[in-house]
Amino acid sequence: MYIVQIASECAPVIKAGGLGDVVYGLSRELEVRGHCVELILPMYDNMRYDHIWGLHEAYRDLWVPWYGSTVHCSVFCGWVHGRLCFFIRPHSADNYFDRGCYYGCKDDNMRFAFFSKAALEFLQQANKKPDVIHCHDWQTGLVPVMLFEIYKWNGMWHQRVCYTIHNFKHQGFGGVEVLWATGLNQEGYYFQPDRLQDNFNPFIINYMKGGIVYSNHVNTVSPHHAWEARFSEEGCGLQSTLEQHHYKFGGILNGIDYNIWNPELDTYIPYPYGPETFEVKQLNKKALRERLGLPDDPSKPIVCYIGRLDGQKGVHLVHHSMYYALSRGAQFVLLGSGTEASINDWFGHEKEFLSTNPNIHLELGFNEELSHLIYAGADMIVVPSNYEPCGLTQIISLKYGTVPVVRGVGGLVNTVFDWDYDQQHSPEERNGFVFYQSDNVALESALGRAIDLWYNAPDYFQKLALQGMAYDYSWRDPGEKYVGIYEFIRDKFEFPAPEPEPEATDADGAIADPDATTSSAELPIAELDATDSDAEPAIAEE
Ligand code: ADP
Questions:
Q1: Which residue has the CA at smallest separation from atom 20 of ligand 1?
Q2: What is the largest CA-CA distance in the chain?
Q3: What is the pLDDT of residue 89?
């Protein structure tokens, strides 16, 4: 199969969080399975160019229709650790990707609407005909909309879309200007509750909703979060849309790439180790202490936190866990960065306040290399998220024999099983500690049990760590599930022979008669009704 991934991140060249890991890891797994995979990414000025091999200008002149005119782009091509990537670089005064950051600009909605348009334009002009286009998160939510409303009529009749939602919180919003810019135009047509109109604000369109409505298959990144998104407020207002499209929605647990996240192969850690040589982990603990200037005291466990400093991650509990760990005689290491000034300032002040305490180190910023050493050197990790679609830090920690202490939400429920209380797994299958309420007492109940076990029963603590290392959270299973979905949408959605293009495109942006063009828009939706039968893929779990 020929698969094109369109995404705003791909680790390690562009990574703000788990999305980058997933896009890279899944692509690699698909290639290992014999599929042809290409990635289309924005060409940010601040990406890690040192991770791209053979970067060259592959298409000098890509003219992307934009606001009734065109924007000149170049497409660069290179290999990111073996993955073939195309980077889109616009040459316009807007400087969409030359901002020194990936996200966080006021015009992010226009930046990624443009990227989505350019990616499709590139596929069309380069005459690429993938079987499946796999889009990720709000940044590419307009890809299926434009594919089925515009590009289908320009020769992309057979392409199918799998849309993966990594975070419902960020949905991507815009006004009519997005429709005019992208050439979708027809306000009256798209500002409809069953198309792009936001479920709460009737005056804006919602990119993620567009992705859900128009894609052939939609999933989020764990079975439990799929349930949460559909039936609780975790759907962030999209519950009714998911309900309407439930027949094509499910959850697939993310994997991690065991060529990158593997203490036996990890080149970022000084002392490789595995389950057979677990004692070598102690040397990495020592190296971590040396690197961060913590006293080398073998009587203390190291608790860590690695992740974005963001409301989603339960920062109030991250903060409490620092002080609680210190009060229990443990050491604490935090590696985190945030986009919210208030949270950054808060942790900045904490860093200053705690600077005289030798047993804690707060590293504020993004540091891929250091993260590997912390996973290898720490004894336990806290993941006290408010919500967590999948969560990769606990999965990585398990592989490194670092015991996770997590809040029981989203993908954390599918991956961490409490040492003392889990009823669904035998004692030999348990791998961490779980708490449920989002308060200090609940956090202490779980972190306290972990620290107690470390102090009082080190053999059992090691047994627990080894049980975690035995789990297989590689891309093997999820890769198989995605392939099943790709095959399903490729084979089950045979469109009839191309129809003539409808004349309804309203070039000057005037409101078109919404009834005039319903036939084309209903096509993906109507076709998808066919899946509401026994042909529904077994792989889409909920
Ligand atoms: P999210 O995608 O919500 O940020 P995940 O747990 O799914 O969270 O993925 C986080 C990924 O980003 C992991 O690979 C983690 O190691 C990495 N990461 C997060 N923060 C940092 C940081 N400050 N420095 C280095 N790596 C980080």
A1: 307
A2: 75
A3: 98
pLDDT tens string 70-82: 999 999 999 999 9
Ligand 1 neighbour 440 (Cβ under 6 A): no
Q: Say whether pLDDT at 518 is over 60.
A: no
Q: To which H or E segment does residue 451 belong?
A: helix 440-456
**Residue 524 confidence (pLDDT) above 80:** no
**Cβ-count burial of 423 within 10 angstroms (0-12 exposed, 13-18 middle, 19+ buried)?**
exposed
Q: Which residue has the tokens 């306290």?
A: 448
All domains of the chain, ordered by start, with CATH?
Answer: 2-255+477-536 (3.40.50.2000), 275-469 (3.40.50.2000)
Per-residue pLDDT, averaged over 235-250, amounts to: 97
Question: Average pLDDT, whole number, for the chain?
Answer: 92
**Ligand 1 pocket check for 339: Cβ under 6 Å:** no
Does the beta carbon of 335 lie inside 6 Å of ligand 1? yes
d(CA 123, CA 33): 23
Q: Report whether residue 367 contacts ligand 1, using a CB cutoff of 6 Å.
A: yes
Q: What pLDDT band is residue 9 in, cutting at 50, 70 and 90? A: very high
Calculate mean pLDDT across residues 404-424. 98
* Amino acid identity at 411: G
Residue 382 has pLDDT above 60, yes or no: yes
Which ligand 1 atom is the nearest neighbour of the CA of 221? 7
For residues 465 and 37, give the distance between their C-alpha atoms in angstroms, rounded to a whole number: 35
Dist. CA 252–CA 161, nearest whole Å: 16
- One-letter amino acid at 67 equals Y
Candidate from 103-107, 180-184, 394-398, 525-529 with smallest mean pLDDT: 525-529
State if residue 539 touches ligand 1 by the CB under 6 angstroms criterion.
no
**Hey, which of 306, 337, 388, 396 would you mutate to test ligand 1's pocket, going by the most ligand atoms within 8 Å of its Cβ?**
306
Distances in Å between the alpha carbon of 216 and those of 76, 192, 209, 247, 491? 29, 20, 13, 10, 11
